[in-house]
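Tokens as discussed.
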């Protein structure tokens, strides 16, 4: 979600989009249905699943590094790459509001991961990469699984 400084001034209500890219759809993300894992055309639950979570977005712009990390991860390994877009909720001049939203985003991710687990995905196959407040989100999700997620990387 690409917002602007006007959105930051007024604040944004939290909305989370889960955007899937694979080697089959590297340039056009598939928006996942957070309530129905099986509705995906590209999600292959037998492959590793990597979530990338951005942080605070005071101006509303998309993270400049996102395209590079997507390309790097998809060329390095045949994975499911899920970009966690919570720009609506991270875009605000009030940092504390964004901080409050991190636990809500973690709960949404936990609910989605729980659905994946019901369809045979292993916690060992999950990797969450979080940047800034996204690293906090990754940690909150990890805590919900008592540290049993395959991997968490925070920056």
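Sequence:
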């Amino acid at each position: 979600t690409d917002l602007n400084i006007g959105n930051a001034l007024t604040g944004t209500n939290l909305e989370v989009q889960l955007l899937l890219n694979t080697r089959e759809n590297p340039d056009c993300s598939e928006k996942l249905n957070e309530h129905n894992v099986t509705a995906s055309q590209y999600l292959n639950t037998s492959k590793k699943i990597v979530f990338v979570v951005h942080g605070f977005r005071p101006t509303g712009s998309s993270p400049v590094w996102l395209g590079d990390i997507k390309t790097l991860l998809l060329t390095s390994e045949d994975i499911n790459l899920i970009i966690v877009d919570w720009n609506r909720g991270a875009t605000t001049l009030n940092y504390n509001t964004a901080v409050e939203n991190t636990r809500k985003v973690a709960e949404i991710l936990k609910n989605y991961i729980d659905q994946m687990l019901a369809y045979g995905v292993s916690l060992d196959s999950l990797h969450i990469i979080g940047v800034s407040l996204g690293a906090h989100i990754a940690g909150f999700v990890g805590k919900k699984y008592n540290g049993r997620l395959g991997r968490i990387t925070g920056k």
